[in-house]
Structures
1.
Amino acid sequence: MAQLRDRLFEDMKTAMREKAAEHLSTIRMIRAEILTKDKEAGNETSEEEILKILQSMVKRREEAAEQFEKGDRPELAAKEREEVPVLQGYLPAQVDDEAIRLSARAAIDEMGVSSIKEMGKVMGVLSKQLAGQAAGARISRIVKEILSA
């Protein structure tokens, strides 16, 4: 369970040795978010929760970069975008839309879901199944497409 935590710790030590300041600050930020979540929960955060934290951090960085671009602050947008690959390096490989579509169709058929009103059931299953491999918004968009067709 502590596999990702151990990797982050080792990568932090390596970044310190190599004096990779940007990489180090991003890893420290990840670890801080995990520790905050640990304290909120009162116990050690699971790997699945850590993946959700990482996905959330990626999403926040992308949104912040967009806002900085709109606000004519390209240097801040660039800094946010530099953190994204570091964060994504700790996430499992992202699946493509076709893989999500196949998983969604299988879940829909298995559960006998026929209307968009039951989308929540499908999302619950797929969110767990594709944890860390696809953003919830992508999964949701594809499930809506399938159920609306």
2.
Amino acid sequence: MKVRYFEDTDTALVEIGSTPACETKELTPDLYVDLDADGRVVSITIEHASKQGDPTDFTFERIPAASPR
């Protein structure tokens, strides 16, 4: 997974997979999801990203799976 922020267009791109996108769905005027041929999410594009949040304040947290009891 890769997250890129393009300052010149104020666009954030979250790349989830490496398969080619076959379809783009607009969820809102600022949010797009690219799907592969099997309907799996390949990437998410956020337009006007700085209006949605601070793209320079990015954190990642991995939540481990729960241990079986």
3.
Amino acid sequence: MIKKLSTVVAATMATLAAGAWADTAPAAPTLDQILAASGITEQGYIEAAYTHYNFAAPNTANGAPTSLNYFDNKANTFDLKQAFLQLSKLPAEGVGGLVNITTGSDADQIKSYPYSTGAASNSYDLTQAFLQYSHGIYSGMAGKFNTLAGAETINDTTNTNISHSIAFLNAIPFTHTGARLTVSPTSTLSLMLGSVNGWDQQKDMNAAKTTELGLAYNPTAMVSWTLQGYTGQETATAPSGPAKLASAISGLSADRTLVDTVLTIKPTSALSLILNGDYAQQKDAFVNGNSATWSAVDVYINYQYTPAWRTSVRLEDFDDKDGYKLGYGVGSTKSYTATVGYSPVPALELRGELREDKAPSAVIPKGSGFTDTVQYVALEGIYKF
């Protein structure tokens, strides 16, 4: 009897010991921990939205009478805008690299030449892929990378509105393929010099290269300022808007120059003010040899009420001085956007937005007539992982 009891006690003690060991065994590392241990940074998100254009239901095939917001150019539709994944290893010293893949409907709009867009597209884009070497105050990169221009980016987690500004879609490029050198003589100043294929061209459309110049100055935590410019031969593209000009040329390579600046001021930890200005000129844009110019001013007012709630207002004036860039008439197109964001948890943000665009002339179809105004409403969710 005593022998049997000893056997049961021993078995029980062994079981308890095994359970205790299991309870104290280290948990398996997460993917983030594995990547971090290798010096790799991961960023990913899924962005889905519902959009509706013009409550007046204009008489157009897809319900969207405008290309002013061509990232969201269909009415009354649910959409997977982006599934975004980025892996990077960019050490302060030595060799590194970054790969960024974008899928979803936005991928069709940001693709570089010569890849297809629209119906022939597979909604996939290799948005960035570059190598980098850093040493001291110098950093060089080669491959495909985002433009220096603009207050907004392709990465929608960095933007405060659902929709993109007219300037982001029409005044500046999205990406470049080439080489860029950055020199940072101080912790607050960086200077950039690059040579690239051109605007959104993974494969160059001509033999000439575009020169990229940039400056970033961050004197305090409250103020930052960037100034960037691009100049080189680009292929002229005539607008597709309802008031497009018959005299506009497409397919001819001629000099294009862009100057862009962004000033950010943060008076408090909750409030930020952003001013973005653009000026561009395309040579030989018309059959008579004349140039076309366009400019834009965007103002963003962002306020974080609580860790969960925020608002963003964007005011925009896009001046299509020659009626060339947008195809909605000669003069200024105004845009007014108000966005509310709510984050119930840090990984999730829900957004709602109202927007109105006002063209310089009544060329937008509306029923049996025309209007100069388009309204837009959208709801969106972004989950970050």
